[in-house]
Fold:
Amino acid sequence: MAHPTVPPSLILDLAKGYTLSEFYPVTHPTLEQALGKLERDLLALGGELRIDVDPVGLRVGKEWAAWRSAHVTRFATRLAGHGVHSLTLKVESVHADGLGRFLSAAALPPGVVRAAGGFVGALSAAEVKGILVNGVAPEPAAPAAAPAAPRQDGVNFDVALWSTHQIYELVRQTAVRVETEDLEALRLELLTAGESQRVELVERMRQTAAWTTGQGRLEEVVALVLRLRRDAEEAARRNPAQRAAVMLALQKVASRAVIDELVARLGKARSEEERAGLQSTLLHVGADVVTPLVRALTEAKDMSARRAYRDALVALDKVGIPLLADMIGDERWFVVRNMVNILGEVRSAEALEHFARTIVHPDARVRRETVLALTKLGGEESVPLLLKAVADPDPDIRGTAAMGLGLARVPAAVAPLLLRLGQESNAEAELEIIRALGRLGDPRAVPALAERAGSGGWLSRRPAAQRVEAIRALGAIGGDRVRPVLQGLAGDKSPEVREAVQRALQGDPPT
Structure:
């Protein structure tokens, strides 16, 4: 947070103004409005505002300003790259126009700033007043040097240096140019451009797309992204270098507004062809689409939309895992359940650290989904969490966890399952534990299963369903220790038990 006398929002607005200056000329209405607000807020503050610059953030006094803001981080990184350690704004001397030229100068590439004699020189060229850099005030810019006369042999080895003000104006004019650029023409030019031209074309496309979006013409930019995705697919085998350039352009053009629109369209799509095209486009954009997809998934009411969002997230595979993890701590149970479901579909061991939290979630529906996800994951890594779930207060979860342990087929689960079998009070959960012990196939389970395969005492007759499952589990284990137990039950009074024994002795797999 900022110094007590400086609202954190003021520093944040300054950083946002820098972000706008990366895209818009000083005369653009959007930037003009932001600069006017900054000027008013600074005048209300009065005096001087000193900002210390660190490569990862800005400080006012001893406090970090808007620490978590991406705008502040970007601004601080660029200032540090220009060699700026501190800024002092003399509020009474800094007006909206000067702030705009200051931020535009900060947005210049470091190479241009170095050519201008450093950041102080760039501010001098832009005729910025009232802002000290590292305690130094910009001096008035020197006039441009006159071109040297050519030598008599017609070759001129002297270079007429531009003034830093001319450099500033050149960059400003480039920003203005985006208003007349044509996105489709730039795209077609990119498809035929040589390697040396591609970087410039991508940057021009990014600037023009940002300006077009700011004009409320988002539809044009979305259409461009969809076409770029098709271009990338077509160039995948034919021309890898061209595909790389197209992919770079697609990712630069796909702003947050574009991504949100693509996600919204995916939820509304009704044809399989349209859904496939939109999902492919989102996959081309990459990790930036995961958070909007997650938000859309949690807010969607339509079953078809939820399925489309979920399928897109699953398709993102490992790209989505670190971002999905942020949703595990959400207070809404259904949000957490959805995220667990997606992580289960991805089937990555990286998800285990998140399942360790959700396996003890207060809502049983989240715990149940976690057990199902762990069952899909399988392997030794999932066993400790499934063993924890075998003792869950909900008997349905205990039974599902036992099934997962049986499917994992890890010998380490045998002893804990036998312990739980002696404690289990729910009939359905007990049956699942017996089935799991049969799937594990470990002879250590034979005595406990043989006991449950018997009829029990006069006062505690065992249910036929439990006896049948125990016999099937014994048949699955097999071996010399099992055959005598099964033969001893061959003449049982219950026809269900006799049939189960016969199948087990014949080696029929349990159903």
